[in-house]
Amino acid sequence: MFGLIKGMGITLKNLAKPKVTYKYPHEPLEMPDRYRGIQHFDPEKCIVCNQCARICPTDCITLTGKKHPDPNKKGKIIDTYDINFEICILCDLCTEVCPTEAIIMTSNFELATYSRDDLFKNMKWLHENDQNIRQDNISSKPKPGGNQA
Q: What EC number(s) does this enzyme carry (predicted)?
C-alpha cells in the first residue's frame, strides 16, 4: 500500500513540470550545430578523385567517372555517385577528405522508409538534398595553398 502512495506522489509531483517531449512531425527538431546528417553532393565540384570512396569505412560510396569529352581539358567528369544509407554510419570522413568540398554534411536526418531499396540514393537525390547544409563544414576547412596560423 505504501508503494502505491509513493508512486502516486511522484506522478503528482511531475504533473506540474514542463513537458520535455516534442510534437515531432508537426514541430521540427532543432539539431546541434555539429550534427552529422545526410550528405549533400555537388557534382559540378567533383573531380572524381575517389578519396571519399577510399576513406569510407563501410564501403557504402560508389562513384565512377569518365574522361572529359573536351580534348583540351584534363581530368575526369563524374558519371555516377551513389551512397547506400543502409550501411552508411554518417561518420563525416567523406566530407573531411574531399578537396573541392563537393560533398558536405547537412542536418537532415529523416531517412525513414518501408523498403531497404529506398535507402540507396543516387547523385540526383544527393544533389537535391540541399536543406539545412552545415556551414561549419565549409568554414572550418583550410583553403588550398593558404596559410595556417
A: 7.1.1.-
